[in-house]
Design goal:
By secondary structure, the chain is of the alpha+beta class. It is built from seven helices and six strands. It has a four-stranded antiparallel sheet, sandwiched between helices. The chain has a two-stranded antiparallel ribbon with strand order 3-4.
């Protein structure tokens, strides 16, 4: 395992959980207890939501049969490292809301907040998460029986972090926490200024 301080150091005083959370690819083939998994969904429950619509939906695969179903639409490059992941979650949002009279313009924004809460609670519980965009979205909707008025945003691997050496060689060099841009690189005062 890595010493996070080798790769990440906050420039301002924040809770260490934000530094602790990163996206490894090596996971132990170890079941996540149901009560632990429920805490990550409980955290997502409390994410902010426009008009309290709460458009997020999670499709969970924590049995071998369900994980195989997910593998059918995850691209091979991701299946190569996530075959042993004990839990896969499809992050989905409902794109409309009766309360709003049609389209919910903040469905993706709110669902992103819920995923963030989930990821931080997972880290607090000693779990690793890795969100993937590398999957066939149309096939995911078909295989998971997701209605037309829902959008699939990501597939998230959840489990206990494994060792870098357990990965295929092609992934080992990338298996380290990444740094982030400094705050000044993405903050504009008064009017927008592209800095990156």
């Amino acid at each position: 395992m890595y010493e996070l301080k080798e790769f990440r150091k906050a420039s301002h005083d924040i809770d260490p959980i934000f530094i602790k959370r990163w996206s490894p690819r090596s996971f132990l083939n170890k079941e996540v207890p149901k009560e632990v998994l429920q805490t990550v969904f409980e955290a997502a429950r409390w994410a902010p939501s426009a008009a309290n619509v709460q458009p997020w939906r999670f499709v969970v695969a924590n049995t071998e049969a369900d994980r195989e179903r997910f593998h059918s639409f995850i691209y091979d490059g991701n299946v190569a490292w996530c075959e042993n992941v004990p839990v896969l979650i499809a992050i989905v949002s409902k794109t409309d809301a009766e309360f709003m009279g049609g389209e919910n313009p903040s469905h993706a924004f709110d669902t992103g907040a819920a995923w963030g809460y989930l990821a931080l609670e997972a880290a607090r519980n000693g779990l690793a998460t890795h969100a993937m965009g590398g999957f066939d979205k149309s096939k995911a909707k078909e295989v998971l029986n997701i209605p037309e008025n829902y959008k699939v945003h990501a597939i998230v691997a959840v489990g206990y972090q494994g060792e870098k050496e357990d990965l295929q060689q092609q992934f080992q060099e990338r298996e380290k926490p990444s740094d982030r841009n400094e705050v000044d690189a993405f903050i504009s005062e008064g009017i927008f200024a592209e800095k990156l």
